[in-house]
Amino acid sequence: LKRTGLPPDTGLAALAQRLDQGFTVNEGCTGCGVCARVCPAGNIRIDRCRPVWLGRCENCLACYNWCPSGAIGGGITSAGYFYRHPEITAADIMKQREAR
What are the tens digits of pLDDT across the range 40-95? Predict the structure, then answer.
């Protein structure tokens, strides 16, 4: 709640969508846009070669897990745990999103 500024009685679903406010990018960000292309919610746009989260996060962490430079952090990513299914590629995720 502290990160979002939402009132204490905010429901879990609304709160989860706003957790993206805690995401940051470090100097390793190249502005490649993979984060925006793998986001199933269309929650990221690239502005001045940096991702901007739009407050519709589904907390899938695709942006975090598929960033080729590992530049996304903050929010719920503080544990430093990355996971990529060995049979799924970023291109697979991008194609699925485009098909929506």
Answer: 889 999 999 999 999 888 888 899 999 999 999 886 666 667 788 889 888 998 88
What six digits make up the tokens of 68? 């080729």
Each as own residue / partner, the long-range contacts of residues 73-82 (CB below 8 Å, 24 or more positions apart, any chain) are 73/23, 73/24, 73/25, 73/26, 74/22, 74/23, 74/24, 75/3, 75/19, 75/20, 75/21, 75/22, 75/23, 76/19, 76/22, 77/23
The first and second tokens of residue 85, run together, are 């299914």
Structure tokens at 31: 């502005």
